[in-house]
């Protein structure tokens, strides 16, 4: 497989990381996500890492990259499903994932994204309600 | 990897098939899904196969199995993201996925599931509205 599927979920995009990431796959994912954010007008990116036993500096950098690009395109990045052991390892490695928001599961991640945008079943696009509420 | 992650999404469960399925993985997925339906009270199962180039009889049978077990546990199974070539191959192979509902993408699949249950942001459980609307 050379592409990780990106699912559109309302105004968010959902990616589930299930396989070992390598350079090419990570680059392809970053490109695909960037294109999808623009083409769908997504306001958030959810990245599920519940299948990952370990998050090394490579994955950490990829997550940071995705978050940085998404932010420029006005989309929040939320990492969901992190295992306890992964969280401990990240801290021990000194990787704090500073640019990335986290949530325990997809539902909470969606709630996080919907906090700043009018996400949901109403299709109200950009109606100027950008409150910057405690970002 | 020996488990495919299952994401809870409101009252639905979402599975993204990204890797080659083999016997053990398929069995584990069926078991995990069954347990998750019961433990979360999910009313629907969304299976995304947009990453699959080909769906053979093994995958077809797995999807049928999941649908059959889910139905007994009162959950709909919706396969989403099927590629055009996969659809053509399925018909040519005589695999019509009779027991499985399909939708073009996750959003439409969620809509399909929400048609028969009070899915959404209200947490109204079983309030007796089982209309059997043209199932």
TrEMBL record, chains A, B:
Pfam families: STAS. InterPro entries: Bact_StressResp_Reg (IPR051932), STAS_dom (IPR002645), STAS_dom_sf (IPR036513). Transmembrane segments: none annotated. Residues 1-113 form the STAS domain. PROSITE patterns: STAS. Coiled coil: none annotated. Gene3D superfamilies: STAS domain. PANTHER family: RSBT ANTAGONIST PROTEIN RSBS, RSBT ANTAGONIST PROTEIN RSBS-RELATED. This is STAS domain-containing protein.
